[in-house]
Write a structure and sequence with these properties.
14 helices; mainly alpha; ABC transporter involved in vitamin B12 uptake, BtuC; globular
Length: 354
Amino acid sequence: MDNTAVLKSSKANYQEGQNIYNRINKRRRAIFFIVLCSLIVATLIDLMVGPAWLKIGDVISALRFGPEAETINSAIVWSVRLPMTFTCLCVGASLGMAGTQMQTILANPLASPYTLGISAAAGFGAALSFLTGFPFLGISWLSVPISAFLMSLLASLAIYGLGKAKGMHARTMVLFGIVITFFFQALQSLVQFRASPEVAQQIVFWMFGSLLKSTWTGVFVSSSIFLIASIVLSRYVWQLTSLSAGEERARSLGINTDRLRLKVFIISAFLTAGAVAFVGTIGFIGLVAPHCARMLVGEDQRFLTPLSALFGVLLMVTASVIAKIVIPGVVLPIGIVTSLVGVPFLLYLIVRRT
C-alpha cells in the first residue's frame, strides 16, 4: 500500500509539473505572438514614415507590384525605405542575439557588444579607412565595412585572449572589454585629429550610426551572418541554459565551459561585426533587448535567444520611426536615438543592482 501511495503521489506531482510547464510554454508562445504582431505593425509604420509620408495603401500597393513598377511610391519604398527597414531587421536581430550570448557566457547583465568595446573597434576601423582611403579588392566602397569588420573581430579576439590568460573569469573579461573600449576610442580620436575637416566629418557621421548608408549588399551580408550564427548557436542551446544556472552546475553536467565560451564569443563577434560594419555604431540594442526578453521568458535559451533577436528588431524599427519624425523632413542618425533610450535603461540596471 505504501508503494502504491508513493507511486500515485509521484504521478500526481509529475502531472502537476507537466501542467505548470505547459502553462509556461503557452504564455511564452503568446508573448512571441504579441511581439511579432507589434513588429509587423512597427515595420509597416516605418515604411510609411519619412520626408514623404505614404499611406498604408500606397505601401502595400508598392510592395505588391514590385520594384519594376514605374511609380514614385515604388521607387521610394523599394530603393530607399525597404533597404533601411531590412537593415533594421538584420542589425537589431544580430545585436539582440549577440548581447544575449555575451551576457550568458560572461554572467554579467551589463555585457554587450557596445560596452565590451567591439563597437568602438569597428569605429576605429571605419575611421582608419576614411583616413587612408585604402580600397579592398579594388572596390573603394567596401573599404569602410571591411575595415570595421576586421577591427571588430580583432577586438573580440583580444578580449578573449586576455581573458583566457587570466583563467576566463567573467568579471576579468568585462574589465578587459572596458580597457579595449578606451583604447580604440583613443585611437579613433587620434585618427580624427590627424584627418582633414572633410574626412573628420565623415568619421563623425559614421560614428552616429545612420540608416541612410543602408544598401541591399549590406542587408545580404548581415542577414547571411545572422542566419549562419543562428543555426550554429542552436546546437548549444541546452549548454548555454545550463551555463546561465552557474559555472559549477554546467561543469557538473560535463560541459567544457571554456570551449563553449570561446565558440559563443566568436559567433557573437561575427554577429556584431556584421551588424555595425555597414551602418556605423549602434549602441545599447545589445544591452536592452536581452533584458526585455529575459524578464518575459526567463533563462531558457530556446526562447530567450529568438525573443532577444525579435526585441532587438522591434527596438531598431521603433528607433527608426522616431528618427524620422522628431525633426520633420530630416532623418536623425539612429545611433543617437538608441543611445538616448539605452542610457536611462543602463542607469536603471545599475541602480537596481546596487
